[in-house]
Specification:
Shape: globular
Strand order of the largest sheet: 1-2
Distance between the termini: 26 Å
Largest sheet: 2 strands, antiparallel
Number of strands: 4
Number of helices: 32
Strand content: under 5%
């Protein structure tokens, strides 16, 4: 049982959280939802007497399914209630004990998952590389009169371009399918968490070729040792390329751990050019591109984003010293997609001082390993990771006492992620009223939770991943290394809310693959029921039986006033439905805005490979998702309209 001071602290935290809840509800056009939370009588939320928790038993089940997973599927609440919420949590913390054979069978359709970059680069080369090889072969054959770039070359380049992104489409499709249908829900939540924490942009250079292996690395360490996870990320080809550490070498004035590579002198270059002109030209190009100094990009993000945090106590000099320690951490044949290699000949072997700790001279890879040991076990890292986990699982402003306890667990267990997470999710703060429905879903969470709520089958096409990108969160599509926002304020504005309402209606119109309303278990009993019974049934099934008066009024009316206001404010014709802003397409042209009766859904394709290629291209270039993702929605019958509005309600937007 928590002590009285702890309970007082929890009550203060709950009171502080209420204004934020009210603000979010007001932003969503339903201001009285927060008032309903504030005036909820204590008796209406009976405590679990033996746990000291503020949520009822049913609320605990819904809360656990929404935070440790991506929401309930039909029947999940009953199963967890029968098992016991604590036993379910304990099982989720050990995903290796959960049978996930059905998901394994689904994933067998994706042939590129987890494959190393060298294989993918060999099988799906970028078009420029293929065309350059073709031109080089023509020159060596003496065909100097061939046109530089023929129409056949152009068509071939387009085909190769699509193919070179196919595995990215498979990767993002598999990520969504796992989130929708895997029984190992907490593991999928943690993969999403770490992919955001160690964020990588698929659109930079050839980073995309290493993403399947990178995600497999995150998945393998998602609930394990933070130090092992940090080391695996530091040596991953994806991170080495994304933050440029593979190009970082010791400055010319510094001693190195091996003999520096020497350029050819004039006589050697002349001899090579005489014997093999092609090799001489390639060598000149290589020397021109060769890294020439220290690169601080990864060192800075390692300290600021991956471990200590922006206020973690490091200085700019520490950034420089960490970068020096990590020189030589590079890639074997990066143009061919090679893996990690340490290059002693470009490693700065001089003395260093990092975070007040001396690093002796004359060492090699040990410098980088010691840096990772130091930052992984630093008290600032324990606080930073503990708070970030608490933000993800509890609230945007987690109670300091909870963060302190989680940080202590992190330190005591030498960075055991599972133990730290268990401290958070078994805490009274996790099961507090202040935490209940306090988190706004990201677009990924919204789309996946809608699919799960309707009992959707996992989508093995890229269309669901494209919907997530359309709502503003393309997978591996965040350009900056800080990742997508973890707090609700960043996701909620008028345009985003309108898009989410339209998304709910699109789901009810069967636009979410695998989620047909006719197949939803509740449809058979509710569609023919009286209107009041339909309303109560939909609120019970999709909103946990809890909805504000305003939400009930919107659902009963069959229309959302925000859509009506948006339609009144637009300059479009009265028959046109509100739409999302049309993005710039991949080829740089402006997509035509679809309108009312003439709106079209995305072009279908008969080739799964081509669809995955296109999905990968769109994901790698954020804000360039396909236009018209929802298309013109058909007129919905009253029951479908009710379901769609419920999926767009503020209560469903929170987890």
């Amino acid at each position: 049982m928590p002590t009285e001071p702890t309970l007082r602290s929890m009550r203060r935290a709950a009171r502080r959280a209420l204004p934020a809840v009210a603000m979010l509800a007001a932003t969503a056009g339903l201001p009285a939802l927060a008032a309903a939370q504030a005036r909820r009588p204590a008796a209406a939320t009976a405590r679990a007497a033996d746990e000291g928790r503020e949520l009822t038993a049913d609320q605990q089940v819904r809360h656990a399914l929404g935070r440790l997973g991506f929401g309930a599927r039909p029947g999940d609440e009953a199963r967890v209630r029968a098992m016991g919420v604590d036993r379910w949590i304990a099982l989720q913390l050990h995903p290796e004990r959960i049978d996930d054979a059905a998901m394994t069978a689904t994933l067998a359709r994706f042939t590129t998952l987890g494959r190393p970059g060298a294989e993918l680069l060999r099988d799906f080369p970028p078009p420029a590389q293929v065309l350059a090889q073709r031109a080089r072969a023509a020159r060596m054959a003496g065909d100097t009169g061939a046109p530089a770039f023929t129409r056949e070359d152009s068509l071939r380049a387009r085909q190769l371009g699509r193919e070179s992104y196919r595995f990215v489409g498979e990767l993002q499709t598999a990520r969504v399918a796992r989130a929708v249908a895997s029984e190992r829900q907490l593991q999928e939540v943690m993969v999403d968490f770490w992919a955001n924490h160690f964020s990588i942009f698929a659109g930079k250079d050839r980073v995309r070729y290493h993403l399947p292996q990178y995600e497999a690395t995150l998945r393998a360490h998602a609930l394990g040792s933070f130090r092992e996870l940090l080391g695996a990320v530091a040596k991953s080809p994806a991170m080495l390329q994304y933050l440029d550490n593979f190009q970082s070498v010791a400055d010319s004035t510094r001693p190195t751990a091996g003999r520096r590579p020497q350029p050819l002198n004039a006589r050697q270059r002349a001899r090579l050019a005489e014997r093999n002109p092609e090799a001489a030209q390639r060598l000149e190009q290589l020397m021109a591109r060769r890294p020439r100094g220290l690169n601080e990009n990864y060192a800075r993000e390692l300290l600021e984003l991956h471990t200590l945090g922006v206020d973690g106590g490091y200085t700019q000099q520490d950034v420089i010293e960490v970068a020096r320690a990590l020189t030589g951490w590079s890639l074997q044949a990066p143009a061919q997609g090679g893996g990690f290699v340490f290059r002693p000949q470009v490693h700065d072997a001089g003395e260093k001082t990092i975070l007040g700790q001396p690093f002796p001279a004359g060492r090699g890879i040990e410098d980088g390993e010691q840096v990772l040991d130091l930052v992984a076990r630093h008290p600032s890292t324990a606080r930073f990771i503990a708070r970030k986990l608490a933000v993800r699982f509890v609230s945007d402003s987690p109670p300091p006492a909870l963060v302190a306890r989680a940080a202590e667990t992190f330190r005591r267990t030498d960075g055991d992620i599972r133990a730290t997470l268990e401290t958070i999710v078994q805490s009274p703060e996790f099961f507090s009223r202040a935490a209940y429905r306090a988190k706004v879903k990201s677009p990924f969470e919204l789309v996946v939770s809608a699919a799960r709520a309707l009992g959707a089958q996992p989508d093995t096409t890229p269309r669901t991943a494209q919907l997530i990108a359309r709502l503003g969160q393309p997978i591996f599509g965040h350009q900056a290394p800080d990742g997508w926002p973890e707090t609700g304020r960043e996701w909620m504005n008028t345009g985003a809310i309108l898009n989410r309402i339209n998304f709910g209606l699109a789901v009810a119109a069967n636009r979410l693959p695998g989620a047909r309303l006719a197949d939803w278990p509740q449809t058979a009993t509710l569609r023919a029921a009286p209107k009041d019974a339909q309303l109560d049934g939909v609120i019970a099934a999709l909103l946990g039986g809890e909805a504000s008066k305003e939400t009930r009024a919107v659902l009963a009316s069959g229309t959302n006033p925000m859509l009506a206001r948006a339609a009144a404010d637009t300059t479009r014709g009265a028959d046109e439905a509100p739409e999302m802003e049309t993005p710039t397409m991949i080829d740089g042209t402006r997509a035509a805005r679809t309108s009312g009766r003439r709106a079209r859904a995305m072009n279908a394709t008969n080739s799964t490979n081509a669809a995955n290629a296109q999905a990968g291209r769109e994901t790698a270039r954020p804000n360039r998702a396909p236009a018209g993702a929802f298309g013109q929605l058909p007129r919905l019958d009253p029951f479908a309209q009710l379901v769609g509005l419920a999926l767009g309600a503020p209560e469903f937007q929170r987890r």
